[in-house]
Write a structure and sequence with these properties.
By secondary structure, this protein is an alpha/beta fold. It has one domain: Rossmann fold (3-Layer(aba) Sandwich). About 50% of the residues lie in helices and about 20% in strands. It has a five-stranded parallel beta sheet with strand order 3-2-1-4-5, with helices on both faces. Helix 3 packs across helix 5. The longest helix is centred in the middle third of the chain and has 29 residues. The chain is globular. The mean pLDDT is about 85.
Length: about 140
């Protein structure tokens, strides 16, 4: 095993830490590189800066930089604490699609994800990225509760 994708949500600290712990254990055991992936649904792109007041553009930019720094710090801490190579990836897009695309792109032998239970209207509107990854993945997926 050479590459592992750990897909995390920066907003869910407990689950994020559980995913990183499990993924780092596998990376350490198999001497694999750990790719820590966070999919930012609303990170700024060029179109985000074309309209709206300057304060909105500044806020969006600040939030994206803050998330990026947090992800870099998590990768550094995970690498140092586990004696592994860990690289942060912050991507904009649809969560399940980006996880699967980056697993393919990096030839990951394992995808580690968490599960956030959604039901009713929230599930209908937002979907379930974990279920989508499990249903479409061509690689092994480990779900951390």
């Amino acid at each position: 095993m050479k590459n592992i994708i750990a897909a995390i949500d920066l907003e869910n600290e407990r689950q994020r830490n559980d995913i990183l712990r499990v993924a780092a254990e596998y990376a350490s055991a198999f001497n694999a590189k750990l790719w820590i992936l966070h999919v930012a649904l609303d990170s700024p792109g060029p179109a985000d800066f074309e309209a709206g007041p300057q304060t909105v553009r500044d806020r969006v930019s600040f939030e994206a930089r803050t998330e990026h720094r947090e992800l870099q710090n998590l990768a550094k801490k995970t690498a140092e604490e586990n004696g592994i190579e860990a690289t942060p990836l912050m991507i904009k897009g649809l969560v399940a699609d980006e996880i699967l695309e980056h697993a393919e792109r990096r030839d990951a032998e394992l995808i580690v994800v968490g599960h956030r239970h959604r039901s009713g209207l929230v599930a209908a509107l937002m979907g379930d990225p974990t279920r989508d990854v499990l249903g479409k993945a061509k690689r092994p997926v480990l779900v951390v509760p």
